[in-house]
Structures are given as structure tokens and as C-alpha cells.
Amino acid sequence: MRVLTIKQPFASLIACGLKKYEFRSWKTNYRGELYIHAGKSCDNDSMSVISKYNLECLKGYIIAKVNLTDCILVDKNMNEKLNAINSDVYRHNYTGCYAWKFENVEILKNPIKINGKLGIWNYNNTK
To answer: Which helix (H) or strand (E) segment is 122 a member of?
Structure first.
């Protein structure tokens, strides 16, 4: 299964369905199922969002499964739409970045403890 490591609190926001897009400087042609791995690092400026929504903040675990359905280059118009959706989650200028669209989010009942990696990486769960 393919996996994407994401800093907290963004991984938890994706897992609970509040964050439908992840932003990267690079695009991907991959579409399909993807595990969300909550990395061990945090975006400290955004951690207050976790307490506002009363979310668990695991670090170093695969916490959810999503379906990556699109990868969109963000222009000024889309950036304005994103910031209007939820200013707690989307509050930056994403123009020029790629928005990876996630759908069909499932929180894992049994998170998987594992170290993350850069980029999209493979997890072999047949251990």
C-alpha cells in the first residue's frame, strides 16, 4: 500500500475529514488508495486547531486511509475558494502549489506505528 507522511496537525485533520486537500510543491500522477502517516514533526503554528476540534494527535503512526482522486495546480481563484472553505485549515497562499484531493477517508481502528519517509512510499502490511 502506498503511504504519504504528513506533519501534524494536518494528518489528523485529514483523518477526521476536515482537510480534503494536502499541498505539495510537486505533482503526482498516482491516483488510488493511500495511507496517511502522521509524521513525528509538527507545524507548531497550527497545533491549536487540534484542541479546537478535540482531535487525537498521534505521531509516528499510519492513522487513516484515503482515496487520492486528483492533483490540481492551485491558481489564484482556487486559492480564494480554499481559504473560504475553512479558515482554520486553509489559511495560507497555496498559489503555485499542487492540491492533492482526498476522498473516502477512513480512520484506522488500529493505527500502525512506523517511521515515515519522504514522498510517496510503500508499506508492506503482510508481516
So the answer is: strand 120-122
32-91 residue pLDDT tens: 999 999 999 877 666 666 677 777 789 999 999 999 999 999 999 988 888 887 666 766
For residue 38, CA distances in Å to 64, 74, 80 come to 9, 24, 27
pLDDT in tens, 90-112: 667 889 999 999 999 999 999 99
Q: What is the CATH architecture assignment of 2-122?
A: Roll (2.30)
What is the SS3 assignment for 13-71? Answer: HHHCCCCCEEEECCCCCCCEEEEEEEEEEECHHHCHHHHHHCCCCCCCEEEEEEEEEEE
**Residue 115 CB neighbour total at 10 angstroms:** 9
Task: Report d(CA 4, CA 62) in Å as an integer.
Answer: 9
Q: Go through 61-99 and write b for each residue having 16 or more CB atoms within 10 A of its CB, e for each that does not.
A: bbbbbbebeebeebeeeebeebeeeeeebbeeebeebbb
